[in-house]
Specification:
It is an enzyme of class 2 (transferase). This protein is α/β, with parallel strands linked by helices. Helices cover 58% and strands 10% of the residues. The protein has three domains: 3-142, 3-Layer(aba) Sandwich (Rossmann fold); 147-209, Orthogonal Bundle (Helicase, Ruva Protein, domain 3), CATH 1.10.8.60; 214-342, Zinc Finger, Delta Prime, domain 3 (Up-down Bundle). It is built from 17 helices and seven strands. Helix 11 (214-226) packs antiparallel against helix 12 (230-242) and helix 13 (247-269) runs antiparallel to helix 16 (300-319).
Length: 346
């Protein structure tokens, strides 16, 4: 658990919080803890406000912060999407007065709690206001966890609920959810409900209950292709079609995966590890680790062929040429034939 959550639960509440990151589970759990520990149920109606700074200027949110609590001791104000603190262009027509926030941070009131939520990887560190905010606020990082951190999160929740979970089951959950903590926690809730009486989750439970993401199914499809199991790859594809996934979307993800394999193969030749490559390509280290393993099963020529065919099929799909459901089928057969020719098998 994040150390700051414990402090919130102990009623050691700061005047200003800053949540930075894209992991929704951490963001939502922090909001939940603030709501539960700053205000009582009776105080919520009069002393809680939630602003989207894409629609509301920061100065109006601060007016709410500086308003005395009504029938209570504290006021809680959440302010999300502070684009004026990032490198992103502000697409809204809202005119912010950042100097108002600077003045407030230098002299915050003691009867309100301001929580700024930045759903981005990082803020613009060059801005004077960003530096001041990070210096004066209690910062909570909602970053995507690595494999070790992910395991710790799952183990903590399992322990809190007085459950047991096999290590291999946790690792399989990590694999099936591609290391997405928010998705994993939702799936873990389902698993604990399913095994409520036994209080123990095993590998087979994860296999039976956890829903694979579309990206995970594409990864497994390529695994089947690598193993020369075309029938297995097609079964996954047909299952996706039954789930109403669009052929153009499936093909786009297949293309995205092959581009990643190609990039990883090139970087590996240049001496980069999968961890280093993940940082350069801005993908999750776990995804890069597994994709690097897949990349080693293809030659550069095979990857070039796959990328060329993917781009041609993408154009065909967008122009309505041919039967769109059959495009991936033909691609799998063509790539398999090309690989066999490369190996002199046909």
């Amino acid at each position: 658990m994040i150390e700051e959550w414990k402090r919130i639960e102990q009623k050691k509440i700061a005047s200003v919080y800053l949540i930075i990151g894209v992991e929704d589970y951490i963001i939502n759990e922090t909001k939940k803890r603030l709501l539960e520990n700053v205000l009582s149920e009776d105080e919520l109606e009069f002393n809680y406000a939630n602003f989207d700074l894409d629609e509301t200027p920061i100065q109006l949110a601060l007016e709410e912060v500086e308003t005395l609590p009504f029938f209570g001791d504290k006021r809680l104000v959440l302010a999300s999407n502070p684009s004026f603190l990032t490198t992103e262009k502000n697409k809204s027509k809202v005119e912010h007065q950042p100097e108002k926030l600077e003045a407030y941070l230098n002299n915050p009131v003691d009867y309100s709690v301001l929580c700024i939520v930045a759903h981005v990887e990082k803020l613009d560190e060059r801005k004077k206001l960003t530096k001041l905010l990070k210096k004066t606020a209690t910062v909570i990082e909602a970053k995507r966890p690595n494999e070790k951190e992910f395991i710790a999160w799952i183990q903590n929740k399992i322990k809190e609920n007085q459950f047991e979970m096999q290590q291999e089951a946790i690792l399989h959950l990590f694999e099936l959810t591609s290391g997405n903590l928010t998705t994993a926690m939702n799936e873990l809730d389902k698993l604990m409900l399913y095994k409520f009486e036994e209080k123990k989750v095993v590998l087979q439970d994860v296999e039976n209950i956890v829903v694979r993401s579309l990206e995970q199914n594409i990864f497994l499809l390529l695994d089947k292709l690598i193993a020369q199991d075309i029938a297995g790859a097609l079964r996954i594809y047909y299952d996706l079609l039954k789930q109403k996934e669009e052929p153009i979307k499936i093909m786009a993800l297949v293309g995205s995966q092959f581009r990643l394999l190609n990039q990883l193969k090139i970087l590996e030749k240049e001496g980069y590890s999968s961890q280093q490559a993940a940082g350069m390509l801005k993908v999750h280290p776990f995804r890069a680790k597994l994709a690097a393993k897949q990349a080693r099963s293809f030659t550069q020529e095979e990857l070039n062929f796959a990328l060329l065919r993917v781009s041609e099929i993408d154009l065909e799909l967008k122009t309505g040429f041919g039967n769109r459901e059959q495009k991936l089928e033909w691609f799998l057969f063509e790539l398999e034939d090309y690989r066999k020719k490369q190996k002199g098998l046909i």
